[in-house]
Recover the amino acids of this structure.
C-alpha cells in the first residue's frame, strides 16, 4: 500500500462540509498509515481552559520549568489519552519517528522530560487522536473529504498558533478556503 506509507509525516486538512462535525476545520498531522489503518493528531484546535500544567497535575507531575501552554484537541478518539508531537532530538520509551519529520510519544516519560527541561526542544501536547480502520482514510480521500499537504516546514506544527493552522494550510496550498463549497454538486 504505497499511498499509505506516503501519508505518514504529512498533513490533512478537512474540507468544508466533510460531513463529520468532529473534524470541522481540522488539520491532522498523520503519524501512521498502513494496511491496518491510520492514526493522526488534530493540531488545529485547543481545549478551552485546559493547559499543560492542568494535564501535568492530573498525572502527578510537577510542572517544573514547562511553560503553561494550551493543550491540543488531538481528536475524537480516547480524549483522556495524551500524546506529545515533538522534534526528533529526544526519544523515550515508546517514541516513534514519523517519516523522519517529527516524533510522537505517548507515555509519561515525555511529559516528565518536558517538565524537567530535558525533553525535546520543540513539542505540542495533545489529548486524543484521530483514527481510521483499514482502508477507511483512503476511501475518505477519494470522496474529497481531505486535502493532503506534503509540507516539509515544521513551522506549521511548532510555530503557528493552532487556530491559524487550518486556514494557513489552505493558503500555503494556494487555495482560498472562503471560496470552497460546503457541498459537492449533484448532476
Amino acid at each position: 500500500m504505497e499511498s499509505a506509507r506516503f501519508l505518514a509525516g504529512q498533513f490533512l486538512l478537512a474540507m468544508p462540509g466533510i460531513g463529520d462535525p468532529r473534524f470541522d476545520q481540522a488539520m491532522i498531522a498523520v503519524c501512521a498509515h498502513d494496511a491496518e489503518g491510520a492514526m493522526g493528531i488534530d493540531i488545529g484546535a485547543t481545549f478551552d481552559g485546559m493547559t499543560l500544567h492542568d494535564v501535568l497535575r492530573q498525572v502527578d507531575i510537577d510542572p517544573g520549568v514547562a511553560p503553561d501552554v494550551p493543550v491540543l484537541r488531538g481528536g475524537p478518539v480516547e480524549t483522556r489519552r495524551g500524546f506529545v508531537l515533538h522534534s526528533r532530538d529526544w526519544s523515550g520509551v515508546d517514541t516513534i519517528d514519523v517519516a523522519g519529520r517529527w516524533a510522537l510519544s505517548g507515555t509519561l516519560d515525555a511529559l516528565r522530560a518536558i517538565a524537567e527541561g530535558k525533553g525535546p526542544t520543540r513539542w505540542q501536547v495533545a489529548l486524543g487522536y484521530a483514527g481510521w480502520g483499514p482502508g477507511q482514510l483512503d476511501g475518505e480521500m477519494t470522496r474529497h473529504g481531505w486535502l493532503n499537504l506534503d509540507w516539509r516546514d515544521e513551522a506549521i506544527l511548532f510555530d503557528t498558533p493552532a487556530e491559524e493552522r487550518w486556514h494557513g494550510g489552505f493558503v500555503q496550498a494556494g487555495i482560498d478556503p472562503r471560496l470552497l463549497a460546503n457541498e459537492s454538486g449533484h448532476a
Observations:
- The chain has one domain: 2-179.
- Residues 2-179 form a domain with the VC0467-like fold (CATH 3.40.1740.10).
- The chain has six helices and ten strands.
- Residues 1-5 have pLDDT under 50 and may be disordered.
